[in-house]
Design brief:
single chain; mainly beta; Immunoglobulin-like; 43% strand
């Protein structure tokens, strides 16, 4: 065989092997585009007038799915919801209602329409039609806030109600609805000119009605007139609040076999709204500071105890508390790892404390036993306060001998040892907030942590004022200003039935960062927010 022939054959073999090598499959770039409406295949066409059809067909350029867990709104509302069906690239809408004459309807799909492969969302697609000769073009815009925090409220249902009294609107579906976005902003379009009530609802059960006290509500005191095409002239702020529950009820109850119980109510309980039906069976009862939690101990081995709750209308409800649960072990449940040396040390226990032996409770610095004073916290009987002259930046050891503390069931604590320390003297920071305003309203300033838990509240003040907070732990804080209309230094919610607005709250526009041994000064001009 010729050399040239052999070389040719070897070359062909190498070429064949190289062509047979496996390469990874490439599916191409990921689809990131939402479905697009094929306008030529929408019937009847979008923005049709003189509409008489019983159904609508909309075709897209991709296979779609419809997420009906997302609110799909139709304005004005219908007696029964349309039926939606998806087949391939088509969306079919079946209208099961007799439509009003000379009325513009809009179906807003929000984020419900998605492609079937990647879930890309076609945002805020709207199908609009009119049974008359023209499309209504008026709109109304605004922002929904949480009345309590002053922050924008997402997902609130904003309803416009025509021809109804203030009492009727909360029990009727709205004529027009909008949904607030992440910035609290809403925009309702294609509105017929007229006079409307406007209400914002949290609408947790999606029934388009106000379920009293279980849902948030915001409202305007007067009706609004919508008759201008310029929606920028139609801006409104709504403040949604949860009212104080009208019906006094037990929120949680824990009754234990030894006769102890802890009962939490859904609102603070007035003195004349509560009584024991068998008062002689109660050995001890203690309310917390808010009077919404009751600790009690019964006498003898009772299986249950009964309470009578008086409602606002004078009706008496009876509540039975069974002593059926196994009592948890009596122990020290919490102690701070670090705290301010100028404050009392607070010990929390798993049950109500009945007695203690001071001589068997040791607070030790190095090897020295310190003199202490101990008392049961009056409004939190599961806590002990220990007073002692402590030093900054110092470690301490706490020792509880067995039987040094007795709970209300007569059980002794087991021997317990734990350690803690105090902060450095320069650990804390300071804040001065300069409130700049021409208002003479009664105000108070509140500091909260990033989770919204209240940390400090100022005294009430009028108008412009410099408010100082000393001894703040380093960290990030939020601030809110409350217009304290009833001078009680507490934010008060509203009441729709009595047409009482919640007290106004302004949220400071940025996070406040407190550092150790640092004075921070902040200016807050509030008039531009009102």
């Amino acid at each position: 065989m010729r050399v040239s022939t052999i070389i040719l054959m070897l070359g062909l073999i190498v070429l064949a092997v190289s062509c047979a090598q496996i390469a990874p499959l490439d599916g191409g770039a990921k689809d990131s585009y939402p479905p697009v409406v094929n306008q030529a295949k929408v019937f009847p066409p979008n923005f049709s007038t003189n509409f008489q059809a019983n159904g609508i067909s909309i075709e897209f350029d991709d296979y779609i799915k419809l997420d009906q867990s997302i609110t799909i709104s139709i304005n004005p509302g219908l007696n029964s919801e349309p039926k939606y069906r998806v087949k391939g690239k088509r969306l079919f809408i079946e209208l099961n209602n007799e439509l009003e004459e000379n009325t513009t309807y809009s179906i807003n799909f929000g984020d419900a329409i998605q492609d079937i492969t990647e879930g890309n969302v076609l945002k805020n697609f709207k199908y609009v039609f009119s049974t008359g000769t023209f499309i209504d073009s008026l709109e109304y815009r605004g922002t929904v806030y949480s009345a309590n925090s002053g922050l924008p409220l997402e997902g609130a249902l904003v309803g416009l109600y025509s021809g109804l009294s203030e009492d009727q609107v909360v029990n009727s579906p709205p004529n027009y609805i909008g949904i607030s976005n992440g910035a609290g902003w809403f925009n309702i379009e294609n509105i017929k000119d007229g006079t409307y009530h406007i209400i914002a609802l949290t609408d947790e059960n999606n029934n388009y009605q106000y379920d009293n006290h279980s849902e948030g509500i915001g409202f305007l005191d007067e009706r609004i007139e919508i008759n201008k095409p310029d929606s920028n002239a139609s801006m409104v702020d709504l403040f949604a609040f949860y009212p104080t529950p009208e019906v006094l009820a037990v929120e949680s109850k824990n009754g234990f076999k030894n006769g102890a119980a802890r009962i939490t109510f859904n609102r603070p309980v007035e003195v004349d709204a509560f009584r024991f039906l068998e008062p002689d069976s109660v050995q001890m009862s203690i309310w917390n500071d808010r009077r919404d939690t009751l600790f009690l101990m019964s006498t003898g081995k009772m299986k249950s105890i009964q309470l009578a709750l008086k409602q606002n209308d004078g009706k008496i409800d009876t509540v039975r508390i069974p002593f059926s649960k196994k009592q948890p072990k009596f122990k020290l449940s919490s102690i701070p790892n670090q705290f301010d040396y100028r404050e009392d040390l607070t010990l929390s226990f798993s049950n109500i404390v009945a007695d203690f032996m001071s001589e068997d409770i040791d607070l030790i610095e190095d090897s020295t036993r310190l003199p202490i004073q101990i008392k049961i916290k009056e409004r939190a009987p599961n806590q002990l306060n220990i007073s002692c002259h402590l030093k900054p930046n110092t470690s301490y050891k706490l020792k509880l001998d067995s039987a040094s503390i007795i709970d209300i069931a007569g059980r002794s604590i087991e021997e317990t040892s734990t350690s803690f320390s105090t902060y450095k003297e320069d650990y804390f920071g300071y804040l001065s907030m300069n409130i700049i305003t021409n208002s003479q309203s009664n105000l108070f300033l509140e500091l909260l942590d990033e989770k919204g838990n209240s940390k400090r509240i100022s005294d009430s003040f009028y108008g412009a004022e410099a408010i100082s907070f000393d001894d703040l732990k380093p960290g990030k804080y939020l601030a809110r200003l409350v217009f304290d209309n009833n001078y009680n230094n507490v934010w008060d919610t509203g009441n729709y039935q009595e047409r009482i607005q919640p007290e106004r709250v302004l949220q400071y526009g940025k996070v406040i960062e407190i550092r150790s041994n640092w004075n921070l000064n902040e200016d807050w001009e509030i008039d531009k927010f009102k």
